[in-house]
Amino acid sequence: MGYDDQVTKNIVNAGRIGRSIAGFVAIAAAATLAAQTVSDGQDVPGANLNLPGNPTIFGKLDPNIRKPTAIVNDTVLTGTDVDQRMALIVALNDYKLTAEDREVLRAQVVRQLIDETLQIQQAKAKDITVTPAELEQSFNRLAKQRFNQTPEQLRAYLRTAGSSERSLRRQIEGELAWSRLLRRQVEPFVNVGEEEVAAVIKRMEESKGTEEYSLREIYMAATPDRAPEVQGAMQKMIEQIRQGAPFEYFARNFSEASTRAVGGDLGFVRLNMLPDALQRAATQMQVGQIAGPIEVPGGYSILYLADKRQVLMADPRDAKLALRQLFLPFAPGTTEAQASAKVAAFTEATQAIRGCGDATKIAQAQKAEVVDNDSVVLRSLPPALQDIILKLNVGQATPPFGSPKDGVRVLILCGREDPRTAGIPSAAQIQQGLEQERVNLRAQRMMRDLRRDAVIEYR
């Protein structure tokens, strides 16, 4: 797959800025870099600005007045541009937004479109352009790879969602132009020496067996007088996240840590890199759990534990599974009482399963669909299912799970290949990961400079 192919394959997501550092680099970085969490008062956002604690505001700002359009260095962003990009994000992520959430998303989209415009403008200034033919090719490839549709079907889907082909093409152009600019202006000047790679390998060997936590964080600064307000806001976030709202959505829009651009992702870190309060919280959490608000120096944090592992040790969650799924769908119009009765009968039947060979017969009796997958990595399953399947023997089934809307499922463990002891990545892999990390850092600096130099007029 070419570089541009990879860009278009992953192009549609809520924030457009993803974490592209390989896991082994995160292990190495954990040995030397501080976590992106506020650790003392000097790191509090705005601390070096010498701001007054209770400023007097001169002038008037009406929070009800929104400015959804902008002119960025003479390039006009219209209200239609904003509306259509918002519609695309909401449709693809199946967001259920309140009026307040929608306004927050609108502000985020405006910032995203401004950054996208600056990237395209900078690429053109360096004689880098994306041709109409390349856009057409990327759009068609995206329709097949991301949506499993023909280009015509994708155009119809975008119109139905309230977006447009033009909006998606604009995003593709921004991604391609920026990636090509980085390849020309940044990547040739990024070098990683053999000594650096050797040092990383040494640190990994010294860290073997230590436990690391994959954490995501939302941090908000708070002075003592604002503490109740911040805590209340965070409690509402936690409630919405537990109800299914994406953690990354709140991290990108509300977190004041440097990790907001990557959805609050701290990567894999060791506990001694975190403030004491976050250390205590992380040790008490199970994978998939959320905790907070947690008081830390300068404010409060919300933590989400995405994963745990031991450096260079085999992890049971890396086992490859052969699974057989029994799926019982509910016909449209099924009442709650009817669904409950079907679930009860399905539960009784599936708990009597004795091996995968027995599952097909029970599926036929229950009029359930059967799907096999022989290459499921345990870690890729939802955390709650991981914990259940870890305790299963071959031939046993999970309890039924699902919803009246999506139907009910049962997974039967047909086979399991446990992972071998993890080995150290190759020197070439480590070098590639370190180079990509440095490219990302330089790209962030470039964007910072472009924003500072931009002339932006809101209308």
TrEMBL record:
This is Parvulin-like PPIase. PROSITE patterns: PPIC_PPIASE_2. InterPro entries: OMP_Chaperone_SurA, PPIase_dom_sf, PPIase_PpiC, SurA_N, Trigger_fact/SurA_dom_sf. Residues 210-307 form the PpiC domain. It comes from the Bacteria. PANTHER family: CHAPERONE SURA (PTHR47637). It comes from Sphingomonas hankookensis. Keywords: Chaperone, Isomerase, Periplasm, Rotamase, Signal. One of its GO terms (molecular function) is isomerase activity.
